[in-house]
Amino acid sequence: MTADKYAPIGVFDSGLGGLTVVREIMKNMPNERLVYFGDTARVPYGTKSKSTIIRYSRQIINFLKTQNVKAIVVACNTASALALDTVENEIDIPIIGVVRPGTDMALKATKNKKIGVIATDSTIRSNLYQKLLTEGDEDVKVYAKACPLFVPLVEEGWTNDMVTEIVAQRYLYEVLNKKIDTLILGCTHYPLLSTLIGKVAGKRVQLVNPAYETAQALDRMLTELNLKNDSETEEEKKYQFFASDTAEKFNAFANLILPYDVKATKQIRIESYQETLNDK
């Protein structure tokens, strides 16, 4: 397939957290058009099986293909961990997840080779972060911890709340006791807690934000493929947002974190899209 460099980039997540990736793309690649889909009707992905995540990912990719996207960002750690290896072999559109960019940066950042990973249950159980880190450096020790309460706390708006700080202290106690010097925020919601997590972790621990690292990796990938948009786009045609459930909460959350005023999010029936990919 010959892609159009002026076509949009498709970005998807299980819900709202992937908007942190969108924010980084907007900041670092201001000419690019974006189509975002948040699967708000079926969130959270972190407690679902691999086969279910693959099925959901295929449906969403088929929807994004109807929007003529030139590349796809899986802005969900769970889907990146459980579905990316499968779906990337089924389509002819460039696709990138959020796990590998985060692990690459953590390996560059660590000095004592002790790296912590916090994420959803499914991402931790997938062992992908642990596998990629130890493949990158066999001397690295990885300490992983599932932090399922962080997502609802972020979506409740409690990003700088005493309750959230107490939860963070409880979650992080174990990995901090291992004397880590690097901590991967392995869920796209978690960068919104970076100030609070940084306070709990202390200055000796460097936080790795896979949302930022993914935007950088996407920029490099599009440059290599000669797919970067080199012209400005009218603001009203630049960004489109879709969700599988009602949009009120989505719009409110998006407008808290994005450098862009989201006026309209379209609700779609994602189940109506095919559950298989047949590009190749």
List keywords for this structure.
12 helices; Rossmann fold; 280 residues
What's the short story on this structure?
With 280 residues, the chain is α/β, with parallel strands linked by helices.
Your description of this structure?
The chain is 42% helix and 15% strand. The protein has 2 domains: 150 residues, Rossmann fold (3-Layer(aba) Sandwich), CATH 3.40.50.1860; 112 residues, 3-Layer(aba) Sandwich (Rossmann fold), CATH 3.40.50. The protein has 12 helices and 10 strands. The model has no long low-confidence stretch (mean pLDDT 93). Strand 9, helix 12 and strand 10 form a beta-alpha-beta unit. The strands form 2 sheets. The protein has a 6-stranded parallel sheet with strand order 4-3-1-2-9-10, with helices on both faces. It has a 4-stranded parallel sheet with strand order 6-5-7-8, sandwiched between helices. The protein is of the alpha/beta class. It is globular and about 50 Å long. Helix 5 packs across helix 11.
CATH class of the largest domain: Alpha Beta
Distance between the termini: 11 Å
Class by alpha and beta content: alpha/beta
CA-based shape = globular
Which regions have little confidence, pLDDT < 50, spanning 5+ residues?
Answer: none
Number of strands: 10
Which strand-content bin applies to the residues? 15-25%
Helicity level, as a percent range? Answer: 40-55%
Return the CATH topology of the largest domain: Rossmann fold
Largest sheet: 6 strands, parallel
- DSSP summary: helix tally: 12
Number of self-contained structural domains:
2
Judging by the overall fold, what is the CATH architecture of the largest domain?
Answer: 3-Layer(aba) Sandwich
Rg (CA only): 18 Å
Widest beta sheet: strand line-up: 4-3-1-2-9-10
- Please trace the helix and strand order, writing H or E for each element: EHEHEHHEHEHHEHHEHEHEHE
- Mean of all residue-level pLDDT scores: 93
